[in-house]
Amino acid sequence: MNHSKHLDSSIQILKRMRGDQSNELGSEQQRALGKEIDRMKKLKKQRTASRDEIYRIVSEVAETVSKIM
């Protein structure tokens, strides 16, 4: 599955959120974003990820981000 350009843009958005000085994220929140970035990178490397797995992981990442913000 070739979803890498969409995953790349999502990873970049999460990195900007984590590195933005004006967002006032605590260290625990930054760590959580870092873990989600790692999950997205691992998903990008998977060649045989099913559509359900992609949706599940993206949904979990979105849930984590919504709790942080």
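(the above was protein one; protein two follows)
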Amino acid sequence: MANRLKAYVRRTILESAREGSYPRKRRTAESTETAFADAMRGTDTGWWHDLIYTAPMLDMAHKYRRDIAAALAEYTDATGESFVYGAGTDDETDGTAVAIALLQGPFSFEEYRGEGPRASGADCSLIGLRFAVEWYAGELAREYAPNL
């Protein structure tokens, strides 16, 4: 099965590279590097226009749950350690919590804003989505913009 989240990341970045090469109709090496550099600044910068609002992100996290789990596994294979978000803080979340949350979804916006295990699961699924998008952006940058 193809990785649909990775395809989404590739499509979004390459479309930005094409737009950045205006008035040309094709992306250039320079516009590709610029698009990847912008995309890899993180998912909380606003560059990822699909990742601004919580409710659509909850839907995306459920839609791409298998691909998020694949990104977590790839990270573990590449680094030899499990993914940890917010290491050493009170909000520390590990890859296991994200994987469990992906199995519990889909989550609603009301659950996310609520309290208890469903709210925690919804937050974990969003952390997983952000991580996976950033992971795949970095992976694709090695292929499309090796000078970064």
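Reviewer note on protein two: The chain has one domain: 4-144.
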